[in-house]
Amino acid sequence: MQTLEHSVFDTLNVTIAGVDGSIRAPQPVISVLNRVLAHARRPASSPPGLACIEVLSDEVAWRINGGSEDSRKILSARSALPQVAGAIVSSLIADVASAAGLNVARAAVIERDGYAVAFVGDDWESCITLAAHLHVRGWHLLGGDYALIDLPTLNVLGARKLLYVTLSCVDDLPLTYLRAVEDSPWYSTMHDIAFYAVDPALAVPRECAWAEFGRLRAVLRLDGHVSEYPSLERAAQFTIGQGIRSDDLERAGVTVAEIKLGDFVTTCDLLERWLTAQLAG
Q1: Residue 186 has what pLDDT?
Q2: How far is it, in rounded angstroms, from Cα 231 to Cα 9?
C-alpha cells in the first residue's frame, strides 16, 4: 500500500494528570496538536512517557496506536487534521487514564474553590456553552471534552485541550468568547460539520483560565430539554464514562440533577445560585 507524503515525523511530549505522554506523528499533525494542546504541561525532560501514541497514515486511513485498547483508532484518510488531532488526544487520554488508574467520562468540567462541576449528556453543544458562560463568570476550566476522575477521592484532574465549538452554538456563547472565536482557526469536515478550535485563555485572563483539579461536587445532565424557564430536576439513574453510575455518585456525596434549559443567561443565573448553595453546604 502506497504511503502518503507524511514521511517526516515529529514528537510532542506533554504531561496530563501527572502522567508524561508522547505523541509521534507526521509533522502536519504535530503542528495542529501543538496548538490544540498549547496549554498542556510539558515534561521537564523527554524520556519515554507512560502514555505513548504513534500515528501512521496511508491513502485509506489514519491509524492511531496506543498502549491500551481504547487508544487504538482508525479514521478515514479524508478526515480533517483537527479531527485527527482530536482523536489522538482522546487516545492519549485513554492511555493516561490507564497508567494513572483514572476513569474517563465525556464531560465539560468547571471548577471553583476546589470543587468541580461536570456537564454531561447528549446535548453536547449546550454542555460546552454553559461551561463557557460560567467560565467568564469566574469559574475555571478543568476540561472541555473529558473528565479524568479518580474515583476513590472523586478528584477530577485537568486536561488542557482547546475547545472544539461548532457553528450551531457560536451565537449562544458569551461576548468574550465570541471575541475568542474570531481569533480561532475554523475547520470543516467531509461531513460538512464546521467548528472552531477556541483557546479559552483568549476569553478570560490566561492565569484564570484553567484549574489543575477539583473534587467532584455535582454532575448535571443535559439531554435537550428546553422550556420557557430553566429548572433543575432529579435525574433518572444514568451512567457516565466507564460505568460510573449516577446513584453511586450520589451515595458518595455528589449532587446529580438534570437541567431543563431556558435561555443561557437565565439558566446560568439559576445555576450560579444553586451551585453557590451546594458548595456552601
Answers
A1: 77
A2: 51
> In Å, what is the CA distance from 190 to each residue of 87, 139, 255?
16, 35, 40
Is residue 143 located within the same domain as residue 247?
yes
Q: What are the residues facing 157 on neighbouring strands?
A: 148, 213
pLDDT computed for residue 1 by the predictor = 35
Phi, psi at residue 50, to the nearest 5°? -70, -25
Distance CA 96, CA 18 (A): 9
Predicted local distance difference test score (pLDDT) of residue 4: 47
Looking at the structure of the chain, the number of domains it has is 2
2 in any annotated domain:
no
Dihedral (C-alpha) 54, 57, 62, 67: value to the nearest 10 degrees? -20
Mean pLDDT of successive 10-residue segments in the chain (281 residues)? 62 93 94 92 78 93 93 91 91 95 95 96 94 95 93 94 88 91 78 79 88 96 90 93 91 95 95 88 67
Grid coordinates given for 251: 451515595
User: What single-letter amino acid sits at 22?
Assistant: S
Domain boundary, last residue among 66, 101, 136: 101
Element (DSSP H or E) covering residue 237: none
Domain that holds residue 83: 9-101
Angle between helical axes of 264-280 and 124-135 (0-180°, round to 10)? 70
Contact, 180 vs 204, CB < 8 A? no
Residue ranges with strand state E in the chain: 9-16, 19-26, 51-57, 61-65, 73-76, 103-106, 108-112, 115-120, 140-143, 146-150, 155-157, 163-166, 186-188, 194-198, 213-221, 231-233, 239-240, 244-245, 255-260
CB 23 within 8 A of CB 16: no
* Cα-trace Rg, the chain: 19
